[in-house]
Amino acid sequence: MAVVLQGLGAAAAVSSADLLSSSKRTKLASVKSMTGRNGSVLVGRSDRRFCGGLNRRGRDAGKLTANAVAGKAESPTSAAGSKQSGHEILLFEALREGLEEEMDRDPHVCVMGEDVGHYGGSYKVTKDLAVKYGDLRVLDTPIAENSFTGMGIGAAMTGLRPIVEGMNMGFLLLAFNQISNNCGMLHYTSGGQFTIPIVIRGPGGVGRQLGAEHSQRLESYFQSVPGLQMVACSTPYNAKGLMKAAIRSENPVILFEHVLLYNLKERIPDEEYVLSLEEAEMVRPGEHVTILTYSRMRYHVMQAAQTLVNKGYDPEIIDIRSLKPFDLYTIGNSVKKTHRVLIVEECMRTGGIGASLRAAIIENFWDYLDAPIMCLSSQDVPTPYAGTLEEWTVVQPAQIVTAVEQLCQP
User: Fold this and answer.
1) How many domains is the chain partitioned into structurally?
2) Sequence-distant (≥ 6) Cβ neighbours of residue 182 within 8 angstroms
3) Which end of the chain is more exposed for a tag (fewer CB within 10 A), N or C?
4) What is the tens place of the pLDDT at every residue in 231-275?
């Protein structure tokens, strides 16, 4: 392993000279932090501190399409981006664009995983990167998740900034020991001698009949591991911004991507932007109920919102985006305004993100609630292969409409 890591380090040193002399290198100016939240440029924090929660008290329909995708006008960031000069891009291309910009900017950034090299990755996120950067900076590995994840952690300890791709997030269960006992804890168990600036990313979620082993939602598995940050992308805009922020972070970051969102198209800015790893996104302001969601469920919620608005409801929709730590500032301000909360997730109900989020809201904002928090989650069963049964295991838009109607009853 030491030989491999030395080789990676040497490759980074050689690539540095090549990159500095290359006319094609992306010239990345320092990113300015803007004060606006919608469509603004936000700098991801690269320190080792996690945001703490706020504790403020006192009051101041028929069957819908399962794979719904909301229009760009429904997202404030999308709407803001579409008014600027920009380019249309698919979500997997946005991830690749962010990755390539960071590899141009920093020669210590490297990629490793199964088929990430000349094949271009199972979902083409790393397409053509091996040709541009070489086989050591874009390293094809054997089918051994525990080995190459451990190698990536070792590379991060020596000064590199690796991105480890799991061909499917479910396969990373084979590397759970490396991710939990090494990746999350080495900074602490070494007394701060090591930082682990590693990004672990890959596709997951319930797809189109991929079966139980390829439909894993691992958010619930990794949320309890100390030392990890977790984010989930849901649009091309935030996919690129979160990828860049994760690579620049000194913390180990797990970036969750959904297999059904890779071909989602959106216009994003031509100029550089980096999002915060600890900030939620206000998707739709409203007054009657706060709906908290992330990843693919964002689009089920947006489809349900169309029905709810027609029925006279005004839901506020937040893509929490940061799964660990939660953005309790944005969430708390919304709860103080609406006094009702619905959580919609694709994760399992028992021990899922929704359970942790509900606990955090009750602990910090109990006095502002006028109704019990409702949580819609996937059923606690292995995802069936049959398409009809698969749909039954995850939350559908009609269930969201019904839940809001129950919450908003006088």
Assistant:
1) 2
2) 150, 153, 196
3) C
4) 999 999 999 999 999 999 999 999 999 999 999 999 999 999 999
Catalytic residue among 74, 100, 108, 214: 214
Provide the residue range defining the domain that includes 328: 281-407
Is 145 a known active-site residue? yes
Give exposure, 378-405, as e/b (b: 16+ Cβ within 10 Å): beeeebbeeeeebeebbbbbbebbebbe
Q: Is 30 exposed, middle or buried (0-12, 13-18, 19+ CB in 10 A)?
A: exposed
| pLDDT of the residue at 403 | 97
Asked whether residue 307 falls in the same domain as residue 210, the answer is no
Residue 248, domain CATH: 3.40.50.970
Q: Is residue 125 part of a domain?
A: yes
Residue that terminates a domain, selected from 239, 269, 299:
269
Domain boundary among 269, 290, 318: 269
Catalytic residue among 93, 114, 145, 219: 145
